[in-house]
């Protein structure tokens, strides 16, 4: 049990330490990412320090076997919550509220807390805008419920006041290109603005007139002048929504409903002024007054017709104003709704227009249906996967710095893994990220074909590609997935790019990033050190890929004398013992024979592997005049050495020609040979069974030179 408890204790300690290391690695990763985005954040030698308050919940202290934890827990570790088998640390909301410090300055463009506060301000503004006309026109405000109306009214006034005193005086602003965060300067900027004047007007204390004229809701009409907060909230909310057009449609619909709401209130007021039920035109006082008046307002503004004719002059004037206002308001709402819907579907309209133009072009030139179907498939997939046909059209409007930030977040993790670019200038990689372009390949599309000149590098963003090879060119050698890179060596290959050695086919839909060789060369002009490094790496990678097969363990060129198997260790020990004893028995003779075979093998490797054999068949033909012989030579066999840059042998032309002896008649199998003065060329003439044929063999020896590898 003691051994088991000690083992479990050590395992727990190791586990805790691993958790701490994982947390440190995560913090280090975040630090490096921030540094990549903004190099001025920290220096290269700076390492992130782990906060003890953050490390505490990562691993709770392990108590000794059979006892309580040693030492006291920190003050921040006394709040724990048990859930199932795990223990989570939490801080009470009261402590969190006590320790919260309100910011001294607020960024109105990016601060979500400010957007949330604007929501409450807009809710208070909507309360005043919608309910002040209702309370003024309809008899919904009575002495029995007046305290409820006043309570909500003054809560809205409190929101207005807090907005003026706390939030508006802390908003940052731009002056001369600088973001001003000074508290005094922000307060002075707000006090001089037009918004401050409107905020003061909307909080005029007209409520004191309640003591004279009673609680009249019209005295609160200035509260509706805080419309600037409403429009600011719209701008901030649309900036953070992914589908802002939905909110625009809702807002435009609310405009129309509010117009009908105000018109219904005015109709009830006009009916009460004329007398409820006094004529056929006014409201008769039956049913729900607000619903019936709202129905009348809808029919009037939309000009549906079917309304009773006005009887009095007041009714006629009121109806004429209603018609004019209704036509104008309704046309404005319809036009605004059209603009909102048109802006929401602008991308879809552009996509459909491009599709229709392409189909019309293909039909005009009678493109085959198979090609047309693939083009349509490309349009459909590209639009549904990206939401646009060309990403560069969206990014071209952004400043260079913002395009770089987006490119780093999207592509840096993939490009940084390419071995060819490791160690290069970081700014050079950033410039290269901005040159990447996205291309979508359909299933079974060839990304590149064998034998093509490689001028691009490919990075798989999504999908898979297959490398095909084999005798038939259809065998799948490897499948590359998202994040893989291929074709990077062709960017720096000389002579217009190296040729592709295999076919690469898209397996399903594949989205690839492509970097052209031309773009990379334009970038490397400004980074000569990185260019030298890339050239050196490219040469090494090409040399590694072009290694002969025998260097990788595969059988190479056949040897004239095949290597012998190694001598067993026990047999070598016996031979060594015999040599020390000086014996001259069978073992000593075998030892001598092994040494001789090793020497012969070494000679064969040094001289025989560098030999070039040339065999010719000489045909004898007798000429009718002059006895001239005509030679017909056929190249039969050549064995070349495996050196990367073999030095051609010395030409025997500059040496003394070998002298051969001729006989009037030679027998089959008889051999005649001759050597040059420097013993580099040996010539043999061998007779054959046929009378008019002989075999001419020439052996040229070359001294072996040692190759020096570049370090």
UniProtKB/TrEMBL annotation:
<dbReference type="InterPro" id="IPR014710">
    <property type="entry name" value="RmlC-like_jellyroll"/>
</dbReference>
<protein>
    <submittedName>
        <fullName>Cyclic nucleotide-gated cation channel beta-1</fullName>
    </submittedName>
</protein>
<dbReference type="GO" id="GO:0017071">
    <property type="term" value="C:intracellular cyclic nucleotide activated cation channel complex"/>
</dbReference>
<feature type="domain" description="Cyclic nucleotide-binding">
    <location>
        <begin position="420"/>
        <end position="524"/>
    </location>
</feature>
<keyword id="KW-1071">Ligand-gated ion channel</keyword>
<keyword id="KW-0844">Vision</keyword>
<dbReference type="InterPro" id="IPR050866">
    <property type="entry name" value="CNG_cation_channel"/>
</dbReference>
<dbReference type="GO" id="GO:0005886">
    <property type="term" value="C:plasma membrane"/>
</dbReference>
<dbReference type="InterPro" id="IPR000595">
    <property type="entry name" value="cNMP-bd_dom"/>
</dbReference>
<dbReference type="GO" id="GO:0001895">
    <property type="term" value="P:retina homeostasis"/>
</dbReference>
<feature type="region of interest" description="Disordered">
    <location>
        <begin position="647"/>
        <end position="676"/>
    </location>
</feature>
<keyword id="KW-1133">Transmembrane helix</keyword>
<dbReference type="GO" id="GO:0005223">
    <property type="term" value="F:intracellularly cGMP-activated cation channel activity"/>
</dbReference>
<keyword id="KW-0407">Ion channel</keyword>
<dbReference type="GO" id="GO:0001750">
    <property type="term" value="C:photoreceptor outer segment"/>
</dbReference>
<keyword id="KW-0472">Membrane</keyword>
<feature type="compositionally biased region" description="Low complexity">
    <location>
        <begin position="48"/>
        <end position="59"/>
    </location>
</feature>
<dbReference type="InterPro" id="IPR018490">
    <property type="entry name" value="cNMP-bd_dom_sf"/>
</dbReference>
<keyword id="KW-0813">Transport</keyword>
<keyword id="KW-0140">cGMP</keyword>
<dbReference type="InterPro" id="IPR018488">
    <property type="entry name" value="cNMP-bd_CS"/>
</dbReference>
<feature type="transmembrane region" description="Helical">
    <location>
        <begin position="144"/>
        <end position="167"/>
    </location>
</feature>
<keyword id="KW-0812">Transmembrane</keyword>
<dbReference type="GO" id="GO:0007601">
    <property type="term" value="P:visual perception"/>
</dbReference>
<feature type="transmembrane region" description="Helical">
    <location>
        <begin position="114"/>
        <end position="138"/>
    </location>
</feature>
<keyword id="KW-0406">Ion transport</keyword>
<feature type="region of interest" description="Disordered">
    <location>
        <begin position="35"/>
        <end position="74"/>
    </location>
</feature>
<keyword id="KW-0716">Sensory transduction</keyword>
<dbReference type="GO" id="GO:0005222">
    <property type="term" value="F:intracellularly cAMP-activated cation channel activity"/>
</dbReference>
<dbReference type="GO" id="GO:0030553">
    <property type="term" value="F:cGMP binding"/>
</dbReference>
<keyword id="KW-0547">Nucleotide-binding</keyword>
<dbReference type="Pfam" id="PF00027">
    <property type="entry name" value="cNMP_binding"/>
</dbReference>
<keyword id="KW-0142">cGMP-binding</keyword>
<dbReference type="GO" id="GO:0044877">
    <property type="term" value="F:protein-containing complex binding"/>
</dbReference>
